């Protein structure tokens, strides 16, 4: 607990991790580990998608990783396209 002044009065305020900080971390970790969202929601006790989505915060690293994965996917598709061999259309 720390002492803070608010509206001219001294008050005590908790400083540190809260239960919901760990719940948020757990949700993020489950999603990043590849656990299906519905399963993660049941584990964390979230009943609605909207509340779960508030816990599953997207970070700048998440966006960079998504861009990296998309680029790798596009490169893979281009490589596959280069390996496609045209069939002889003159055959009957």
Description:
The chain is mostly helical and 92 residues long. Helices cover 58% and strands 11% of the residues. It has helices at 19-32, 37-44, 49-55, 60-83, and strands spanning 2-6, 9-13. Strands 1-2 form a two-stranded antiparallel sheet. A hairpin with a 2-residue loop joins strand 1 and strand 2 (9-13). The longest helix has 24 residues, at 60-83. The model has no long low-confidence stretch (mean pLDDT 85).
Task: List the topology elements.
Layout: E1 2-6, E2 9-13, H1 19-32, H2 37-44, H3 49-55, H4 60-83
Antiparallel strand pairs: 1-2
Strand percent estimate: 5-15%
State the share of residues found in helices, binned by percent: 55-70%
Structural class: mainly alpha
Shape: elongated
Strand and helix order: EEHHHH
N-C termini distance: 85 Å
Number of alpha- plus pi-helical segments? 4
What are the low-pLDDT stretches, counting only 5+ consecutive residues below 50? none
- Tell me the major beta sheet: 2 strands, antiparallel
Topology, number of strands: 2
The overall average pLDDT, rounded, is: 85
> What integer value in Å does the Rg equal?
25 Å
Q: Widest sheet: strand order?
A: 1-2
């Amino acid at each position: 607990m720390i002492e803070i002044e608010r509206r001219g009065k001294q008050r005590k305020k908790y400083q540190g991790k809260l239960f919901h900080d760990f719940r948020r971390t757990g949700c993020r970790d489950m999603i990043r580990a590849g656990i299906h969202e519905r399963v993660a929601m049941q584990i964390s006790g979230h009943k609605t998608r909207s509340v779960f989505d508030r816990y599953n915060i997207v970070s700048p690293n998440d966006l960079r990783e998504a861009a990296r994965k998309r680029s790798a996917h596009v490169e893979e598709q281009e490589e596959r396209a280069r390996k496609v061999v045209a069939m002889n259309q003159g055959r009957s």
